[in-house]
Amino acid sequence: MAGSFSDYTEDAVLDHILKNDALSQPTHIYVALFTVAPTDAGGGTEVSGGGYARKQHDTWDAASGGASENTGAITFDQASGDWGECVAFALFDALSGGNMLPGWADLSASKTVNSGDTAEFADGDLDLSLN
Description:
Layout: E1 3-5, H1 7-17, E2 30-36, E3 45-46, E4 55-56, E5 67-69, E6 74-75, E7 84-92, E8 100-113, E9 120-121, E10 127-129
Antiparallel strand pairs: 1-8, 2-3, 2-4, 2-7, 5-10, 6-9, 7-8
């Protein structure tokens, strides 16, 4: 499964550790779905239309052993149109635009979201780790 820190996060963490710039916590974290996976530099094709919006989710387990996961389910609004085949997710610091934090990852299994479907990640389904 592919996934990585975004270029933005890599630079921010290095600047923070090397005392060039303090890294502050985002006000909120938003989960985004993609039909074409982004890269560390961004891009990809985020779902749009059909009632899609990034989903705010601010509760994550405290990191342990270099890993964390979502606490509680992440449930998107019901699709009012087809979203297509979702293949990846990313975390952002804004409802639209913003910075990709910490990065992105492929979904372990792609999922086609059609009109009337509700995309959801169960508690603990989104795993984030640093190797």
